[in-house]
User: What shape does this take?
Amino acid sequence: MFIALREEVEAALADALADCGYPADDLGIEEPPEERDAVFASSVAFRLASAAGAPPPEVAAELHAALDPDGYDYVGGVDAEGPYLNFLPSEAYFQGTLEAGQDEAYGSLPVRDTSVVVEHTSANPTGPVHVGRARNPIVGDAVANLLSYAGYDVDRHYYVNDAGRQMAVFTWAYETFEESELPEPARDRAEYRMVRYYRKGNDFLENADPDAVEAAEAEIEAIMQGLEAGDEATYERVTEVVDTVLDGMRRCLGRLPAGFDEFVKETRFMRDGSTDDVITRLKEHDRAVYEDDAWQLEFADIDKNLVFLRSDGTSLYTTRDLAHHEWKLDTYDRAVTVLGEDHKLQARQLRAALEDLGNDTDPLDTVIYSYVNLPEGKMSTRAGTGVQLDDLLDEAIDRAREEVEERLDDRLRDDDLDESDVERIAEQVGIGAVRYDIVSKQPAKAITFEWERALDFEAQSAPYVQYVHARCRGIEAEAEGIEPELDISALSSDAERELLSTIARFPGVVESAAEAHEPHRIATYTREVADRFNGFYRECPVVTADEETTRAARLALVVAARHTVANALDILGVDAPDSM
Assistant: This one.
């Protein structure tokens, strides 16, 4: 109803502007402060004041006189408040919201004929996923979920760096060292077992005898040259390492959960000739230069050149990524890439180079995020001393289990929770707390993850919102035998109408958040819904309400609230528990 009301407001205001002889190119429609009863407001009078030769309040009064809410379903009235025009909802708006909220898919927008690929995570397959990089799969998965709810046809891709020096070093180390030379793995999973070879190899290259290092470097260079030449045997050697590590990383990311439709390997664009094609076209560009033993592309407005071909004939990551992005542009209508803040320059160079190659880059969007820190400071993966994502998730589940067990005696519901229920809830709450705390912040802002905040059942955290869903389920269980009734006339209190008004906004929040690729807006919205629901819960009994019609209507409102919370959490990738 929110989007439908906005469309009616736009139509009514455009008609009024036309009647008064004003242009309707900018309607100035916005959401008013919370204390207003209006759903929408317009500041258009500010824009028109100069042309009208009158102060904004007079222009607003003139437009107010020309506005006719009759003939519209959801516009219930219009007020002039100084320079602003406030648009109030009709009873049909609340009735439509109550009805729409009964749909389990509430909040999903109509299907669009637009395909989108969301590339995220894409961590080099050199070992376990590190906490500092955890924001990428969490934000990336939420962006993909959000776009899917907004009606787009979404594919989720992990771009695999399987052709660079790191993978050549890894392959050489895996083939050189014996397991008996390695320490015990931190976990019995593929990427933890394999990363020991990578660390051993790097240590060897830094500390071994110079002659031994020289020989090793020659083998590493041969692997890189073999990949560049399309040698099948070399490709199979590297693929064995890459796929083994990826299998473990996939299992880790699946705990979040963050899944992918395709793992796209960069060697694909070397083997099909598209990287060579990019190199040929870049060499022909009038800003291509050969300097410092490498081919480089100069830019008009970027200080640092893009090195796209080494003197030994090997390509670079960004060169191959150019071919990758041209494939994206040919395959999808839009492409979104989630990148860490240390890739800002690379993203600028990539876009500029794509344009120099003749591509329209308008369909490309980039979401830049800052890294996650723990309270003790920034974390490092170099020597394997940092905190892994697995460690964070294990700790989250353990802490959540303690919280759940402490609260068992205070539960109001009479459904007995056994050990498996407690474990399930602990996992839902613990992992949900991690995801929610990370995705709820604007991606570009650095964050420090703190347990006390993330797992606070009373504050505005994941458990706080999840508890609303569990409470809704509890009310519905208690109301067995009561049939929800879609009767808006029985929901007239401030608490009921405020909750309905907040529920009504959900599709609009999905629309705007998807357009901006900002899932943290959904997190903010979930807290608003939770606050409104808790106010309703305190003031409006459902099962024990005096009137049968009130009980039935409030039950329908509870169902609408549950669907709203469940789907908003689903966008964020957070489970909605039935019990807590």
Observations:
- Residues 378-385 have pLDDT under 50 and may be disordered.
- The chain has 21 helices and 14 strands.
- The radius of gyration is 28 Å.
- The first strand starts at residue 29 and ends at 30.
